Amino acid sequence: MKFAKTYTLDAISKIIDCDYVGLADFPVHGMNEIHVVEPGDIVFVDHPKYYDKALQSEATIVLINKQVDCPEGKALLISDDPFRDFNKLTSFFKPFTVSNTAISSTAVIGDKTIVQPNCFIGNNVFIGENCIIHANVVINDDTVIGDNVVIQSGTILGGNAFYYKNRPEGFDQLLSGGRVVIEDNVHIGVGCTIDKGVSGDTTIGEGSKLDNQIQVGHDTVIGKKCLIASQTGIAGCCVIEDEVTIWGQVGTNSGITIGKKAVILGQTGVTKSVKGEKTYFGTPIEESRNKLKELALLRRLPNILEQLKK
Predict the structure, then answer these.
(1) What is the pLDDT averaged over residues 123-133?
(2) Active-site residue, selected from the candidate residues 29, 35, 134, 218
């Protein structure tokens, strides 16, 4: 998430009421999660296991719960609860805005785009030309949709990320201030749910086609010309490269990458990143030819054991 203007380190510290290490006028341009940070961004870290990763990331402002040596060229925000204060910043820079109309007056809808009855289109949504938005679609705030996009009934774009911190009193949600971006010539089927990024974008690339009842988690990037079949669940922060085919009832772990032109056969559990231009199957995931050989050998196992008894 980039801010509308540049803030100073001192100004940010006042928003969340915390101390800082660095120059008072150190520039702050935005805030992001660790996997998408850029210079000028704030990143938060609240566990010693990830201190080094955050301090050595591209982010130049680290919101942290311990006084540590500040890397050269960076600044620190010292907080007793970085998770809470990251939420405070999200609420400050991207506050929830109540809607009182089905289609916001701030939404932009392109020429020859058809919006069927009972749709909700939120604040600052942009929809390109020649799109068809079928009945009962929900397009939440800040979503960007390109040209020639088809979204079928019951689909929801821009739900909150499934991201929680386990506290003694219960689960605390990390607020979502990102967007959903749908590029040109994408088709999205009935009853799909595509969550917005926590601070960045969840993106569906140009020409990709999604079947019915598909879940796409926060900050995931799906490349161009991908085919994804029904009941697939893609977790947050995944990268699906161009021209990947995913068949039905596939599930993924968060943070994995599926390489270009890979094929994932039905009911596979994508437990790790896999290279492109190969076909995969099974849980845990393996190249399909190896997995199918393994299954064939397992079918022979009773006969082999019977032979050994003789």
Answers:
(1) 98
(2) 218
